[in-house]
Amino acid sequence: LWFVSDSLILRLEPNRLQFFDYDSLIFHCEGSHDSTGLKIVHQSKGELLKCRNYSDIKKDSGQYWCESRDGKRSDIIHITVTDGPVILESPISVVEGETVTLRCRHKTTSTNLSADFYKDGHNNSRSSTGNMSIPSVSKRDEGFYKCISGGRESAESLMAVQGETHQCYQIKFKNTCEVPLFVLSIVIAAYITWSLGASADTRRASTVTENTNV
């Protein structure tokens, strides 16, 4: 009895979807027991190195995903690289119940400036610090966000909100997905109990056979 994760996840470092040109970005492809066969893929440029500096905004913006040698793929992430003065720092995805902070960031200054935040084209919040906090995020908060600060506007990025998810596991070569941890615990306990019982029955049968022969 063993368990193997069956899903791939593409993570970015830093964890955001918008970048200034010449920013550095590291890709991490996780979730496979065979790390040697993983690769990062761009929709038009093909396989990439895991770490790179963005220098050509037209070619480096776009869709990215990771693939395994056996053909599994992660969800697609859309990255925006801009030569503009403002970006929106938002995480790739969040889980329901978490607190999320969006930041309107200027390229030429580290000082926090006031900003307006928009969700799906509608003014959602105004902040004097350039930060917008969403406590206990829910699916209602999912959507396309952008910010405007000092008359300069960022691009839009999707903030995806995920519910509680469970890994997919292989149990004796049969895939079992969306299995809560307590159910897996029951399965494991039942298997161990059955194994111990079967072993005890075998020992008793062996003892009876030996006594009969004597």
UniProtKB/TrEMBL annotation:
GO terms for biological process: cell surface receptor signaling pathway; immune response. The chain crosses the membrane at residues 179-197. Keywords: Disulfide bond, Membrane, Signal, Transmembrane, Transmembrane helix. GO terms for cellular component: external side of plasma membrane. One of its GO terms (molecular function) is transmembrane signaling receptor activity. Residues 85-159 form the Ig-like domain. SMART domains: IG (SM00409). It holds the Pfam family Ig_3. PANTHER family: FC RECEPTOR-LIKE PROTEIN 4, IMMUNOGLOBULIN FC RECEPTOR. This is Ig-like domain-containing protein.
